[in-house]
Amino acid sequence: QAKSRGKDQIVVFDEAMAGSAEQRMDDEIALARAITEEQLTLHYQPIIGLDTGRPVSAEALVRWHRPGHGMQAPDRFIPMAEDSGLIIDLGRWVLHQACRDAAAWPDRAPAMADATVSVNVSARQLTHPRFLADLQSALAESGLPPERLILEITETALISAPEAAMETLHAVRACGVQLALDDFGTGYSSLSYVQKLPASILKIDKSFVDPISGPGAGTALSEVVIKLAEAIGMRTVAEGVESPEQATALRLLGCHRGQGYTWSRPVPNAELQDAAMRLAGAADVPQPAS
Ligand code: C2E
Ligand code: MG
Ligand code: MG
Ligand code: MG
């Protein structure tokens, strides 16, 4: 009896595994096609200078218009792309597209003419032997000045291959491209390690911003992070700022930049000019040539 139940369980287990493996295979094939068939698109979220209130940068965030499934957020497919290795092709597409888009902002979105563009880079992508060649070709093909490009990396990306990653990061800096440490405070890297990174920008994770309800209220941890960044000469960007009170509190703490729904959600590239104009809220912002 026990034996037959065991057998049943084995069958059930096998079917469940086969089902999920098959599903996974379908998802991977669909994502591989998405990369070549232009189902991916980039949305841009403005990043605001807290001193002036004007947009100074925008982060490229990938979306997948998956046929029959609607628009997929990156959390639904980036982990799969990382596990399967598709992140190499996907990341290369994102890098090229973001450079092309930003290179055209002076004509197509003049309110962002001088703005930098931030691109997220996965660990596996950063440590891939062709990464630097891809970066250089994205810059050369688009004509984007390297100073207008920022690569966002996470602490976890660096922990998995610290030495190889560090070498690549120095080469990136040598190209004139800037580096930002994303989601700071969610990883486990030591402060001495962070200090050794050639990154000039530290992005304060949303989890530090969430508890802030106004100046002096819930600011203890973000204050420590801003002071730390100041001490090691890094500029700060607060992520996930959802209220004007949070924005004011962060500005008073000396945070340089903010990003979040209080200013703008990520928008398609074609809507970035309007979003930036609204944010700048000033008549002297140049209009696109028609
Ligand atoms: P991230 O790099 O930390 O990007 C910020 C995320 O926070 C974005 O989510 C953005 O839409 C969201 N966000 C911004 N402001 C607010 C706010 O005020 N409130 C809330 N609740 N959320 C806010 P998204 O676009 O879903 O991206 C999620 C993550 O996926 C990104 O986190 C990044 O790690 C990854 N990702 C996105 N695009 C790419 C890409 O092209 N390559 C790679 N490797 N990863 C990407
Ligand atoms: Mg990011
Ligand atoms: Mg982030
Ligand atoms: Mg984050």
From TrEMBL:
It comes from Actinoplanes ianthinogenes. This is GGDEF domain-containing protein. The chain holds residues 562 to 851 of 851 of the full protein. Residues 24-280 form the EAL domain.
